[in-house]
Amino acid sequence: MAVHVSRSRVYSRNLFVNQYSGLRFGRICANYIKRQESTVSLPLSSGKKLAFQSGKYARFADGSAVASFGDTAVLVTAVSKAKSSPATFLPLTVDYRQKAAAAGRIPTNFLRRELGTSEKEILTSRMIDRSLRPLFPDGYFFETQIVCNLLSVDGINDPEVLSINAASAALAVSDIPWNGPVAAVRMGLIDNEVVVNPTRREMAHSQLNLVVSSSFPNLVVMLEASAENVYQQDFLKAIRMGVKECQNIIKAIETLRKDVGKPKREFTVLQSGSVELLSAVKLLSENRLRAILRDFNHDKISRDVAVATVRNDVIEKLRNSFPETDPVIISESFNKFFKDFFRQLILEEEMRCDGRKLTDIRNISCGVDLYRPLHGSAIFQRGQTQVVCTVAFDSPESALKSDPVSILMGGLKAKNFFLHYEFPPYATNETGRVGAGGNAGRRELGHGALAEKGLRPVVPSDYPFTIRLTSEVLESNGSSSMASVCGGSLALMDAGVPITQPAAGVAVGLVSRVNPETKQIEDYRILTDLLGIEDYLGDMDFKLAGTKKGITALQADFKLPGVPLKIIMESVVQASDAKSHILDIMAQTIKQPRTDKKDIWPISEKIQVEAHKRAKFVGMGGSNLKKLTTEAGVTITSIDDSTFSIFAPNQSAMDEAKEMIDQFLKEEKEPELEFGAIYKARVVEMKETGVLVTFYPKMVPALLHNSQLDVRKVAHPSALGLEVGQEISVKYFGRDPVSGRMRLSRKVLQSLASSAVKNLNGGTPSNS
């Protein structure tokens, strides 16, 4: 790897330090006064160059870096408060915003400025968060914010993955405690060849969209993928290549850190309990917790209640025995012991708290066609996770359309299939806001997007309806997003959507033992079909969806600062086996899309309208189309110049619409005009471009253009003395095949000998 480094030293002149006080500002000013600039660049295997720069922009931030790839550049800043928060977790916030100015565009909304955060921005923020969070040290509970500021977007190279790398560089050069760096790449699969960091156009032809975040040495930190039923071996190959590519980027960020990085700040962690306190916790709770975790009759609620009872009792007793110890320390000591004891039982006995072995799947039950008015519906129950899915069809006009900036940054132009995921508080026996004003939370958006990725590859892209699939979680004890894939697949088949293959999803977890000195995993167990408590106390949430043939989606989050490739490979294989087993159970309920039509299903048909009848069909100002919508309840969509699509909510609405269309296009029997014949035409209107004439009563006026009025050049019909009501002779040359307009000429008659003139406006034929 060839790494190019350039640096210069920057000194500030006007820092009014004497106007401010406080250690934090003093530290900021000290860093600002003497701050180096450095640029590190490296060529990637794709032949493109990735560059990092630090020390030039946003120097008041604890850390900042600019990453550029092609003409796409992202500035990321990292700031962490000096005072710890009262929480016992890391309050990390990542804000990624798409900016129209970076793409050389103006926002298309009414105010012409960036407004609320979009779903795409939220999903990207979550992906960056999941790549960074595992590498913060244990006990670091200081509020931290990462802001991704797009400086320029070329519409070719990906700003999302670039933001992960820039965020990694910003944290690496900052004084914020962090065990990075990490690096990320996007992997594609084009013509059965794995491609590193494909362009936006290349991604349009890729069967795989995989983001790999990795740390040193060859450890996986985060995975996010959607795929077109990619084979397992191709998927694993892409992961391996992605991790290998990340190592070069990590070396470049390390070079930047060594060059301009600041020493990491010291921080205090929550004081741990004394040896005596930990021994007392173990003595008072071990046997009681063992009895709870080996009572396989417990469900989620009863187990949580039993553990909470032990916790409250132990804490109360220890508060009396250790009056000088902070109650928070006592509580955290119990939580730590419970977590370690829970994991120890799995590692040593290979038996889980609900009695299952490591690879066992909970009992599954399915059902479809729940309520008659629904286009499609299904219920999927796996253990104590219960999901109800419904399908609703609408016209193609209801497709979700993206703004130009989102399209330029790699988004879809329009989506005719989308999945909305809902997680009400009662699903976990809690209270809270329901609906939140119609705005889904970040978690709901993330889980819904993952389930949608799992199902989108099996839904035909040319389906004549827009499909909205809703997934409502009624009970949750782990892996509700993967249950949404299973329930959604059943509901789509119940709705008669011709999916290519049924899809299912499953989550697997990890419980490991790490050597405290080498920080390497010494022992581990992979758990199939995660419970909620196993997700909470475990090291990994590895969600995989797909069909019998291959993989359609994957999302992997880790609590460890990195997981070896060996565990990733085993997890993919174990999850794929479980997915196939779930598909076999689902097939017992419904094997393939329903072919017998429900009478409540909508209908879509195409009609051909002759070019010269389009005006009658559409009506003045689209009045006929509006009438069809308001009276018949149908939606008309123009496909091309002569083809229209009619969407009707049911057959009766379609029949009514067809009757109305017949009335619009109905005409009195008109004379058949003979090609090349000469007709008497009456002038009914004068225009700048010519005159409108009719051959017979109730005829739609046809234009006789100025160029066809006379052998001489005519600027206006009045120059020839023509008036409204006057009769003239014209020759008919049929209709234009594209526009359907009549082709008429008076000019050609001025050089012809007299011939029979047909008068269709009344009277007898005459010679002219």
From TrEMBL:
- PROSITE patterns assigned: KH_TYPE_1, S1
Q: What protein does this entry describe? A: polyribonucleotide nucleotidyltransferase
- UniProt xrefs under Pfam families: KH_1 (PF00013), PNPase (PF03726), RNase_PH (PF01138), RNase_PH_C (PF03725)
Arranged from A to Z, the UniProt key words for this protein are: Cytoplasm, Nucleotidyltransferase, RNA-binding, Transferase
Lineage, uppermost ranks = Eukaryota, Metazoa, Ecdysozoa, Arthropoda, Crustacea
Q: Does the keyword Secreted apply?
A: no
For molecular function, the Gene Ontology terms on record are: 3'-5'-RNA exonuclease activity; polyribonucleotide nucleotidyltransferase activity; RNA binding
One biological process GO term for this chain?
mitochondrial mRNA catabolic process
Q: Which residue range or ranges hold the S1 motif domain?
A: 676-747
EC class name: transferase
Write down any Gene Ontology CC term. mitochondrion
Q: What is its EC number?
A: 2.7.7.8
Native source species: Daphnia galeata
Keyword Zinc-finger listed: no
Q: Which family does it belong to?
A: Belongs to the polyribonucleotide nucleotidyltransferase family.
